[in-house]
């Protein structure tokens, strides 16, 4: 019968020890990036429901639909980026552009959007842009440290 009991000891003799250490170090390096990407998810969800939260969905339905589509897109991209943060640097630019669209969309989509809709979109878009820039900066600094 095989001996499968746990023996305390050093794992340094394991054939995959160096690979496991490298994988664990990469995971720890991208932990902060994943936290920022989770904020992107929350901002995207807020952007999607903001028309009904701020109550401009009936007055400006075209802006409400724009916010819904862009917000769901931001949330989906944030989810993808939080799942694999080390491969998400290119998606940060897309999130940045969507954040800029949130900022300018009250004037592009709807001529007279109203103060609540403008403030909601500008603040949410600025937060999305900030989160995308922070995540991109963290990824760039981590990639420089590993090279």
UniProtKB/TrEMBL annotation:
Membrane-spanning parts: 33-52, 64-84, 91-109, 115-139
Checking InterPro entries in the record gives: SPW
The SPW repeat-containing integral membrane domain, residue ranges: 39-133
- List the keywords (alphabetical): Membrane, Transmembrane, Transmembrane helix
Q: Which protein are we looking at?
A: SPW repeat protein
Organism (species): Streptomyces solicathayae
